[in-house]
Amino acid sequence: MSDSREAQPAIVGLTGGIGSGKSTVARLFGEVGVHWVDADDVAREVVAPGMPALAQIAGHFGDELISPDGSLDRAALRTLVFNDPAQRQWLESLLHPIIREELVRQLRPEGYSLPYVLLVSPLLLETDQHTMTQRVIVIDVPVEVQIERTMSRDENPRDQVERIIASQLPREERLARADEVVHNDRPRTEVAEEVQALHQRLVALFR
Ligand code: ADP
Question: How is domain 9-35+114-207 classified at the architecture level of CATH?
Fold first, then answer.
């Protein structure tokens, strides 16, 4: 029987710059049974067609932000709020609590027996999402590796990738805020072993 007073699993944050390997490492945790939620996915889900937030955005900014297929034109919305702090503020105060509530909901899976779950987010430390977490794992690679992996994954030009990196927390600052670091500048098999060892430590810590 589910009881709302039941102990909830601890929330461990997993972050890193673009192309550092967050999704890759999250999948490795998934392979040992750890439940994880991607904050970017949730941010998209809450504005999917039919969701109340999408109707509110259309009501505020106009129907031209809705694509013919009914989905939000995210690029158009970004452009609209980019140079307009007041509109950006409006949008953030609409979405922020909705995203947070949905994150909390998804971070409490039914019938889950491990003592922790993972919140995967590129902006965990840049936003207040880290306040939801009891511990922070940083995925770390040298910036050059980050650039090369992102360029080949997204087929984006170098200058675009460099701009995104410049908008995120610098590597050293991110590392300074880490409780745990996963070094992802090495073969996947070695990273998988490190993840398994870290998983054992986290289970022991939160059990
Ligand atoms: P993020 O989610 O942080 O943006 P990804 O997990 O998508 O990063 O990894 C970025 C790219 O680098 C992907 O194409 C992924 O397959 C690759 N990659 C991740 N880890 C490794 C590794 N240890 N060795 C080689 N390639 C990797």
Answer: 3-Layer(aba) Sandwich (3.40)
